[in-house]
Amino acid sequence: MSEPRPAAKSGIVNAMSVDVEDYFQVSAFDTVVSRASWNTRESRVVQNTDRLLDLFARHNVRATFFVLGWVAERFPSLVKDIASRGHEIASHGYHHQLLYTLTPEQFREDVRSAKAALESASGGAVVGYRAPSFSIIDSSLWALDVLMEEGYVYDASIFPVHHDRYGIPDAKRHVHRLERTEGPIIEVPASTVRLGGVNLPIAGGGYFRLLPYAWTRWGIDRVNRAEGQPVVFYVHPWEVDPEQPRFDVGAATRIRHYTGLRSTLPRLERLLNDFGFDSIAGLLKLPNVHRKKTSGDAAA
Hints:
Shape: globular
Oligomer: single chain
Helix content: 25-40%
Order of helices and strands: EHEHHEHEHEEEEEHHEHHEH
Distance between the termini: 24 Å
Number of strands: 11
């Protein structure tokens, strides 16, 4: 894959990321879908991820795929295919549990299991992590120390916004080093634009589906040109699947999850035409992440 195409106006290359989970694994469905039932449900994650892979190939975009360990163990060929197309494999944890519901040891086991599954399937090093539903918040910052101890180089879990499930509103808005007890870790926050002293989300997901496309385009252009910073964007495979099975959930969850599913792919086409994207590893210039390990890597 050749070098990513920069944004036409700013010349800045942004980061594209995909949180690879199935439609029944989202945190909002925890009360209606038990993890014990996951194996019995129709999986659509492979076909939906393939849609995104084909889209990125058409636009010469390289992305970071934060894959659930649960998905990697059941569909290792999917992880292998993502890596073989030149994308970065990173961790989304194993069981898609909100961090602030776990103990540090439970979290350690989760990220350790996910890393092992992903590296086994991809044949490459996994150095990045994003928590389910951005659930590193003020009360779960201890997770950063665990990540460093388990061999992760960067985290992409902090969303500097107000939200009922996640967010650290006063966190730094752009890529930075966080100094922790165990040393420094690179933090790659989901992107926002600051207006009237408030951070407003432009990073993707439901914000991309529910709000007008013009908002996302304006926000990314503002961050690129006015602040000279790249944007970190995210999408889920289930967001390009309007035919996915529906669950009986409350009105707020129904609106957040199901609105705009038919428009996601066309909007992504516009986004990739309007701006340049690379993986997070590419953005951070991390070495040896976009290729498989070789026997010589161990000695490097």
